[in-house]
Amino acid sequence: MELPGFCSHPLWFVLALLLGMLLWATRRRAWDPRRCPTDLTGKTVIVTGANSGIGKCVAMDLARRNARTILACRSRERGQAAAAEIRAATGNPNVVLRLLDSSSLASVRAFAGEVLREEKRLDVLVNNAGLTGLPFALTPEGLERTFATNYLGPFLLTNLLLDLMKASAPARIVTVSSFRHSAGTADTRFLTGRARPGGFDPVYNSTKLMNILFTAELAQRLQGTGVTANSLNPGVVSTGIMRNFSWAMRGLFFLISPFIKSAEQGAVSTIYCAVSEEVSGISGKYFGSDCSLTLPSAAARDAGLARKLWEESERLTGLSP
Predict the structure, then answer these.
(1) How far is CA 272 from the centre of its chain?
(2) Burial class of residue 298, CB neighbours in 10 A (0-12, 13-18, 19+)
(3) Is 272 annotated as catalytic?
(4) Number of other CB atoms surrounding residue 204 within 10 Å
(5) Fewer CB in 10 Å around end: N or C, the chain?
(6) pTM higher than the cut 0.90
(7) Looking at residue 119, what is its pLDDT?
(8) 91: domain CATH number?
């Protein structure tokens, strides 16, 4: 990979090296999925954004545990390739692709309708799909694209599948957030572009804060149902999510890539929340990249803010009573 001019400056190499060493030094040994005996024979799971990166690694692990594994992907071609690879690697023939574009509420409804018609149960839902680095844009439904993809689409999908999950209880909902949520804000006007956080980072950060707030409110509403909901931070991970960023940012990530997590390592905290016995019965919590219970930001613990976000999300998705 050819780096942009400024990234070839010796100072940038030194700074990148120091940053990489800091990231490596702060990583604690995480839970090991290979030592977890959980078997998912007879269970059904859905992983969104499962054609690459963390989502693909999560789907691979769940398929190895003999689950009926549904890959919810936007691209038919990449999804089919991922499904074939997972079937070959795990020997599990029950790995299927269903198309889902979480930025489109129509696509979410069509996907959920297909699942409800064809699946008898749903034991694990992993809301993993996400993007960053794209310029501001509204979808044909009048929603801001990044907020729809990372937050509002998963909100609708989860709600549409709740009855099936309740009937399959015990069941788990796992939503991938980020440590960057602490720099986000949860202005509901972001969802339709009426207000716009400046730059790519604030947009992504805010969607990740919304993921945690949604999970906390969802857990409250699911009490007594046997369905749990938790969110997590996968850590700093080398995946294709950086593809929409500038050469400068991609160059920096290239320099520190030897020190950050691979997609397989970054998937560990998601798998932990999805299958580990340690998380059984725990709900409404946020887990760190080392799989430990972690206290999210003050904004992420604001119950009033979570309720307000939920109510506005219900209105925008047409779920309001």
Answers:
(1) 14
(2) exposed
(3) no
(4) 25
(5) C
(6) no
(7) 98
(8) 3.40.50.720
Grouping H, G, I as helix, E, B as strand and the rest as coil, residue 130 is: coil
Please name the residues in contact with 314: beta carbons below 8 A apart, sequence gap of 6 or more.
320
Q: What tokens does 46 get?
A: 């859905």
90-93-94-97 Cα dihedral, nearest 10 degrees: 90
Q: Is 28 part of a structural domain of the chain?
A: no
Phi, psi of 216 (to 5 degrees): -65, -45
The one catalytic residue among 151, 204, 272, 286: 204
How far is the C-alpha of 152 from the C-alpha of 158, rounded, in Å? 10
Yes or no: say if 216 and 271 are a contact pair by the CB < 8 Å rule.
Answer: no
Give backbone dihedrals phi and psi of 75, rounded to 5 degrees, phi first. -100, 120
Instruction: Tell whether the model's pLDDT for residue 20 goes beyond 60.
Output: no
CB atoms within 10 A of CB 5: 10
Q: What confidence tens digit (pLDDT) does each residue in 187-234 have? A: 999 999 999 998 768 999 999 999 999 999 999 999 999 999 999 999
Residue 120 structure tokens: 């008898």
Instruction: For residue 66, tell me if it sits in a domain.
Output: yes
CA–CA dist 84, 81 (Å, integer):
5
